[in-house]
Each structure stands twice: as structure tokens, then as C-alpha cells.
């Protein structure tokens, strides 16, 4: 039997790692490499300088971004910072999230974008969106629940 095997185009991804983004997305045009303790938005408008948002925990990821729990040094509160992949940033449409209608802005069910800033990194220029921390999404809440979710909780 011939022991020379060609490399497989398939990659093994253990189930436990399914909650992590693909590391190949960390390339030019892709995700920004974030480390716990990193500080972002060194805007000249902020008092004291040195950055406004200190990263404390990873909240999640999607096909176009990663989301981080960060401490807002200026407002002394926790926020969610979404860092969009560089190739998507120039045309990223956060649609309804940019709406400033009072009824929507007051809603506890709507992740309103409160602020945006740009971040230059090794993989390009990234749009960053700051929102209040709302809690887990419905999919995560329902993980492990095998009964139906009551309508008042789903809305």
C-alpha cells in the first residue's frame, strides 16, 4: 500500500471550536486582531487621550465582524464594540441600527448604534460601531432548551 497521501482540502474542526471564528479571516482585508486589554478610539475629542474603549471580553462574531465587551472610560459604563472586517467596512450598511427615531432609540429591544469610529490596523481600516450591551441573542438563550419559547420572550 502506498503511504504517500495527498493533502486533503478538508479541515477538521472539533465541535468545541465551532464557537470560534475562522482564523483565516485574520488576513489583509479581514478581521482586526484584538487582544484583551486593548484600548481603542484615541479620538482627540476625548478628554485625557489614550483611548476610550478598553476590551474586556469577546461577545461574538459573524461573517463580517467581531463583537467585544469594552469599558467606556469616558462614560464609565460597559458597551459592545463591533469591529467590521476591513474589506466590508467601506460599504457596511448597518441599516436600521443607524436610525435615530426616538421610538426606536428608546426601545430596549433594538441595538442602536450610539457612536462609530475608524480603526487602522495590520489588516486594513475597520469601521467600529459602539452599542449598549443588551445581553445574549435568542439563539444563545434557547441553546439547550427543547421546549417552545413563549411569545412574550421571543419578541
UniProtKB/TrEMBL annotation:
Reaction equations catalysed: L-threonyl-[protein] + ATP = O-phospho-L-threonyl-[protein] + ADP + H(+); L-seryl-[protein] + ATP = O-phospho-L-seryl-[protein] + ADP + H(+)
Class of this enzyme: transferase
Domain of life: Eukaryota
Residues the entry annotates as binding ATP: 82
Keyword tags: ATP-binding, Kinase, Nucleotide-binding, Serine/threonine-protein kinase, Transferase
MF annotations from Gene Ontology: ATP binding; protein serine/threonine kinase activity
Documented EC number(s): 2.7.11.1
An example Gene Ontology biological process: regulation of mRNA processing
Organism: Lasiosphaeria ovina
Designated name of the protein: non-specific serine/threonine protein kinase
Alphabetized Gene3D superfamilies for the sequence: Phosphorylase Kinase, domain 1
Amino acid at each position: 500500500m502506498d503511504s504517500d497521501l495527498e493533502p486533503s482540502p478538508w479541515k477538521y474542526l472539533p465541535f468545541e471550536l465551532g464557537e470560534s471564528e475562522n482564523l483565516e479571516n485574520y488576513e489583509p482585508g479581514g478581521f482586526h486582531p484584538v487582544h484583551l486589554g486593548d484600548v481603542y478610539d484615541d479620538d482627540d475629542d476625548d478628554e485625557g487621550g489614550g483611548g476610550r474603549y478598553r476590551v474586556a471580553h469577546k461577545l461574538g462574531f459573524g461573517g463580517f465582524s467581531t463583537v467585544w465587551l469594552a469599558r467606556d472610560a469616558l462614560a464609565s459604563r460597559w458597551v459592545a464594540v463591533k469591529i467590521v472586517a476591513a474589506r466590508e467596512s467601506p460599504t457596511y450598511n448597518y441599516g436600521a441600527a443607524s436610525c435615530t427615531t426616538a421610538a426606536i432609540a428608546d426601545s430596549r429591544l433594538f441595538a442602536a448604534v450610539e457612536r462609530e469610529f475608524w480603526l487602522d490596523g495590520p489588516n486594513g481600516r475597520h469601521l467600529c460601531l459602539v452599542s449598549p450591551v443588551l445581553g445574549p441573542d435568542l439563539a444563545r438563550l434557547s441553546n439547550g432548551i427543547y421546549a417552545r419559547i413563549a411569545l412574550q420572550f421571543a419578541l
